[in-house]
UniProtKB/TrEMBL annotation:
PANTHER family: SERINE_THREONINE-PROTEIN KINASE RECEPTOR R3, TRANSFORMING GROWTH FACTOR-BETA RECEPTOR TYPE I AND II. Residues 1-229 form the Protein kinase domain. Keywords: ATP-binding, Kinase, Magnesium, Manganese, Membrane, Metal-binding, Nucleotide-binding, Receptor, Serine/threonine-protein kinase, Signal, Transferase, Transmembrane, Transmembrane helix. It comes from the Eukaryota. Its EC number is 2.7.11.30. This is receptor protein serine/threonine kinase.
Amino acid sequence: MTSRNSSTQLWLITHYHENGSLYDYLQRTALDVETCLGLASSVICGLVHLHVEIFGTQGKPAIAHRDLKSRNILVKSNRQCCIADLGLAVMHSQGSDYLDIGNNPRVGTKRYMAPEVLSEQIRTDCFESYKKTDIWAYGLVLWEITRRTVVNGIVEEYRPPFFDAVPSDPSFEDMKKVVCIDQQTPVVPNRLFSDPVLSALAKIMKECWYQSPSARLTALRIKKTLKKLNNSLEKPKPEQ
């Protein structure tokens, strides 16, 4: 809280992350498998933290982001991600069973919208449904990260999800046709399957993209799977 010319100003001071957004970072950086897994794990840890209600004096309500995408994720100097831009988030507290949807009619970024949002079938009165749309978007972010990961010396240029199916600024109708009517999901590069970690990440992606929201993985489930993968990478090599 500062005073300038005798008028009070409220300032919000946040950390500065010089790597910029994950979107920017992926444009200019090809990843190794370890970095890829680190980025993916830190995003899901952030999502679990949002999705889970924490009780007690230092508690927080459960929060669904509703606009998760690589442009809204920042990369810290240690190459861990943090989730930013909670302008569209919804909050839920079990105690009061109060769902705060805010009064924002904008529901996120069209390219990352889950099928039930595009078809307007989402249950707007149910907090769980918003968490499921975050998982759909997480799968797309995971796809963006893995495509920029080098396997056997090969890596793709950065592209946004559905780059080959919709225009660069897709309309609601463009996305609805591709995601709901044609039920397309992004193409997973074959080369990922030659690496055990990337192969496991490809499987997670596909389990984030079920048309039926209830069939999708939870953030906690994904976090546990990635933790196991991390542990498998960290096993000390046997001495020669």
